[in-house]
UniProtKB/TrEMBL annotation:
This is CPBP family intramembrane metalloprotease. It comes from Sphingomonas chungangi. GO terms for molecular function: endopeptidase activity; metallopeptidase activity. It holds the Pfam family Rce1-like. InterPro entries: Rce1/LyrA-like_dom.
Amino acid sequence: MVWLAIAGLAIAWGLPAIGIGDRLFPGDTISPRIGREAAWWAFAAIILLWVTRVERLPLGSIGLKRPTAGTFGWAFAFFVGMMASVMLSFAVIIPALRLHQDMATTRSLIAVPLWLQCATMVRAGVCEEILYRGYPIERIGWLAGRRWVGALLSLAAFVAAHIGWGLSQFVVVAFGGVLLTMLYLWKRDLPACMIAHALTDLVGFALARAHG
């Protein structure tokens, strides 16, 4: 199980890091963007198959379980908190640090049909929570004997995956990552994290689109 967990972590973080989607689907037109989105879903599916077929563990071992009323309630509560952190970041923290938002990256995400933008935000909420939250927190926590170690390392990996967006986005992602990690550690409910993550991205980039 030790080597299976290590291999699973290498897959979860390695596949996105080496840019397989970008290599297979280069370009900024609609078709390659759809291809890159499909690649992310494939990465997440591989990890789910790894858990169930190779590690032979239930999906509950990475916090993936049937949603309950509490799932939606806590997801909405943390979505509100994440949106508050976004507004605080752009209104106070980022100006105080004299940082500037990477508008080129933002425009690249919203300069697509609305349906594709929404699909991207949902994909981010689902796939990133599997690859950067549920699986690594549980497996690193098991390997280290401390769940907080898994939480810290998974948070670092999540933020690092967004570092190319610029330092201002680093602040926003770090706040969001901390809140989502807290939600997972508290409730061990990955669907709640997925919903909160997707809602924050959907609303945040909808606002950017409206002002773009």
